[in-house]
Amino acid sequence: MEKVYQVLKNAGGANIAVGVLIIVFGITLGVINIISGASLLRNRRNILF
Asked: pTM score, two decimals?
């Protein structure tokens, strides 16, 4: 029974670590998208279609 709790503890820790990484990755991509969108808005007069 003790081994089961150890496995569950390790799985829970891994899930928390993966969740934190996904949150950080999502925030980073969001900031990059906002910056690139602001750059496009700033230079919208130079864009020709």
From this structure: 0.71
